[in-house]
């Protein structure tokens, strides 16, 4: 019998070691999936049937006009399943793979609810929580044209940006706040954001928020939201930490799990490259020198900076992205990558969610992730919205056993490629080639950031 979650590689299975193994249950019934996910709750009140088109949904006409201008007529699977119920005011628990359209699945319902409403200073009417600054900004950017069409004022509240500007926006009155949990809690404690009038709260990528240690902040925020409001929780994976939030804060949710969270995307191919420590950097350099863009993941900020410097010295347009860089730096780097001014984005897991780049066909794990969910979300930066893509992981000899376990938990059967820098299979999949070797400098049109420790030129620093 063929592997039920086999990646769509055209070659035969290279080794038995990466096949899926049957998990041991010791005779007990399983309460979750092989990845440790909890059993989805049963909906008591039946949900509404899926929508066949956006036009058939009970939404304000301006939202439908913007959808038409964007060329969107038929909702994605998660949108078709959840929108009829979220528009009706039901709590929703939605699971769908990354890149499947979850933002509009909750965003259209939010904006339809806020249409024509008045927001008081410091008292928003809806809140969307996201685990990273990049994801929060992408949610806000994706919803911006729809929000303008119905007169809904939004603001983004994230760390790494001046808090006084965010407080000023809230004092002026906004309908919708898109926020990371930590910064929103800061503003709540300052009295700049009061949630007693919030009618709808959304948790986007809830599993990552719990994995990143945001559970206390998320719980504190939801406790401030009126209990009779609407709550929606969307994620690509659902584990037992999320189960705590579902059981505590969602009321008889309509549950939709429209495609597998394990990343079995028919247009995505998974590849393993066994390399030695001496070969790893040269293989990574040849892959980064390819035609087209690539995201490369490493575990630490220091490793990211070193790899970006190495690639720049070898003539590759590379830039680092990690939590140690300021938000303006991170935003500029992402803009450069999306424009193609940067072709190799070297990142930590901060880029594993919330980044959408059209036409990105390759993701490389220079350091294999320690968790199968991180692997799935890293890979989810490619093969989005029906496009094809490859995920390549470089594996050292001491990492092979852990990688076998990770692939088993993710229900993925990869193809093993030759690890030599000259291997034809590697070049075929990744477009690897010899770098130019001419050092390059990434220049930004934005002015450089001035250190707080230095006064502007021409002025004397006052003595303290």
TrEMBL record:
Domain (Helicase ATP-binding): residue spans on this chain: 83-256
Domain DEAD-box RNA helicase Q per the UniProt entry, residue ranges: 52-80
One Pfam family of this chain: Helicase_C
Record bears the keyword Nucleotide-binding: yes
Keywords: ATP-binding, Helicase, Hydrolase, Nucleotide-binding
A GO CC term assigned to this protein in UniProt: cytosol
Compositionally biased residues, Basic residues: 453-464
Skewed-composition ranges (Low complexity): 1-17
Chain spans, region Disordered: 1-38, 431-464
Domain Helicase C-terminal: 279-430
Protein name: Superfamily II DNA/RNA helicase
Organism, as annotated: Nocardiopsis algeriensis
């Amino acid at each position: 019998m063929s592997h039920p979650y086999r990646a769509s590689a055209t070659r035969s299975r290279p080794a038995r070691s990466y096949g899926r193994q049957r998990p041991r249950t010791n005779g007990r019934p399983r309460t979750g999936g092989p990845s440790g996910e909890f059993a989805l709750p049963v909906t008591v009140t039946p949900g509404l049937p899926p929508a066949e088109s956006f036009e058939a949904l009970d939404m304000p006409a301006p939202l439908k006009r913007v959808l038409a201008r964007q060329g969107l007529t038929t909702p994605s699977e998660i949108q078709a399943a959840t929108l009829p119920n979220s528009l009706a005011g039901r709590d929703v628990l939605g699971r769908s793979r990354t890149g499947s359209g979850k933002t509009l699945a909750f965003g259209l319902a939010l904006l339809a609810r806020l249409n024509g409403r008045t927001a008081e200073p410091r008292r928003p009417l809806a809140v969307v929580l996201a685990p990273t600054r990049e994801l929060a900004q992408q949610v806000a950017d994706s919803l911006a044209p729809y929000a303008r069409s119905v007169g809904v004022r939004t603001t983004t509240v994230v760390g790494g940006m001046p808090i006084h500007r965010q407080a000023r926006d809230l004092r002026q009155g906004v309908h919708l706040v898109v926020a990371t949990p930590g910064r929103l809690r800061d503003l709540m404690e300052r009295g700049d954001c009061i949630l007693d009038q919030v009618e709808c709260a959304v948790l986007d990528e809830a599993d990552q928020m719990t994995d990143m240690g945001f559970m206390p902040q998320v719980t504190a925020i939801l406790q401030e939201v009126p209990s009779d409001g609407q709550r929606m929780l969307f994620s690509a994976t659902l584990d037992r930490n999320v189960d705590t939030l579902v059981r505590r804060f969602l009321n008889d949710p309509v549950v939709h799990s429209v495609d597998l969270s394990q990343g079995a995307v028919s247009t995505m191919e998974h590849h393993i490259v066994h390399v030695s420590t001496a070969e790893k950097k040269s293989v990574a350099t040849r892959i980064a020198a390819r035609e087209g863009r690539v995201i490369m993941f490493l575990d630490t900020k220091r490793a990211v900076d070193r790899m970006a410097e190495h690639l720049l010295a070898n003539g590759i347009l590379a830039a680092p992205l990690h939590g140690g860089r300021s938000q303006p730096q991170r935003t500029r780097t992402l803009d450069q990558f999306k424009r193609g001014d940067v072709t190799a984005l070297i990142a930590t897991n901060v880029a594993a969610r919330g980044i959408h780049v059209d036409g990105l066909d390759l993701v490389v794990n220079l350091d294999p992730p320690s968790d199968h969910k991180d692997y799935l979300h890293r890979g989810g930066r490619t093969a989005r919205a029906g496009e094809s893509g490859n995920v390549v992981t470089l594996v050292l000899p001491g990492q092979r056993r852990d990688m076998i376990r990770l692939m088993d938990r993710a229900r993925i059967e990869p193809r093993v490629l030759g690890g030599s820098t000259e291997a034809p299979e590697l070049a075929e999949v990744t477009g690897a080639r010899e770098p130019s070797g001419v050092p390059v400098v990434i220049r930004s049109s934005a002015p450089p950031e001035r250190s707080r420790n230095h006064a502007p030129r021409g002025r004397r620093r006052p003595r303290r």
